[in-house]
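Letters spell out the chain; the tokens describe the backbone. To illustrate:

===
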Amino acid sequence: MADDTQEVKDVKGFQPRSVRYAKELDEDFADGLSGLYTAVWAERENGLSKKNKHLLVFAIACSNLKTKSALKILQRLKKFGATSQEVKDAMMIASWTGGIQNFTDFTPKILKEMERLGF
């Protein structure tokens, strides 16, 4: 059997902690979790690009006040060529779904990281 945990590293670009922890518990559990990651993040013909998938999860993280996750995703967005305006649009969508108070809570850290990353 192929190493599913290596495949998820190839697809995602890094080994998620959850897969590493799952592997410590049970190899079959790790393979199942790796399959989920691979299915979600694989690029498919006529499907969402990795950039668009990251924009979606970025907006969701922001709207749920998962600022640390949003900052990590922002780094991935830079890698996948997202523009400053695409990130800002995602932030505005996050304010729509999460509320203006959430927007005021996550925006300062995100803008600071955008500047650091050169968006």
Notes: The chain has two domains: 4-41, 50-117. Residues 67 and 109 are 8 Å apart (CA to CA). DSSP finds seven helices and no strands in the chain.
